[in-house]
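Justification of resources, computational component.

The compute hours requested in this renewal are based largely on the per-chain cost of generating structure records like the one below. Each record pairs the submitted sequence with a full structure-token output. That output is archived, and it is also reused by downstream analysis tasks.
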Amino acid sequence: MKTGTATIAIVVLTGFGMTVGASWGHIPSPLSPAGEHLAPMPPGALASVESTAAGAVGRDANSSHGQSELVDWAVSRFLDAGLVLPEVSFLFHDHARSCHGRAGLYDEAAKSVHLCLRNRHTILHELAHAWAHHNLGDGDRLAFVELRQLDGWGEHSLDWAERGTEHAAEVMAWALMEHNTLVPWPTWDHGETRATWRLLSIEASGPDELVAAYELLTGGLPVDRLRDDPRHYVESASLSPESARDSGEFNPPTG
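The structure output for this chain reads:
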């Protein structure tokens, strides 16, 4: 695993219908190819944002303030956690088809993050792919796959939720968010519902499992998550189906 500091050069490109070549590390999204639920964006606008490990940021006068703020926020979350980032470009798109129907993707060859859904989880997830590609060696990836009991790192023959690279990105996004993103997951047992806290996207995602995965990836601990209220992690909370539904403690998945 690489250590030290690095200068980060970030270019934010906004436009319509831009595409990339070979890509990996994209996250599923309910967005349709027509790009519903995406905020409109003027085509052709170009903005540059440069950040250093010290956090200094320069903005182009034509940049979208919201885009620059989102990039600045995501970069600062990594730097504040002591995580070294490589040079990477960010491309914002109007349509999900530019991200191959996904919320976002990371293009390893071009070292670029493509965002079709502009939210904090998506940018952290994709930037985590860039971090992992830059910082993890083959031995690190193998150790992570073994810890997570998966069959591979990034093979596209595997389902999305069975790839080590996606587990790593989800673990890091969880750790670096400003708030906890675990949800109470219902388990039905003899007429009662027990809530177990986890991520919706991947298995083996309880608090202890995520902390162990983050520590293996980074060599550190997810400080913000360790500060979370421990009452959020009551594994043995029992609820009847009626009280679970009426209390709003959680919403069982549909479909």
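The chain has seven helices and ten strands. Residues 1 and 140 are 7 Å apart (CA to CA).
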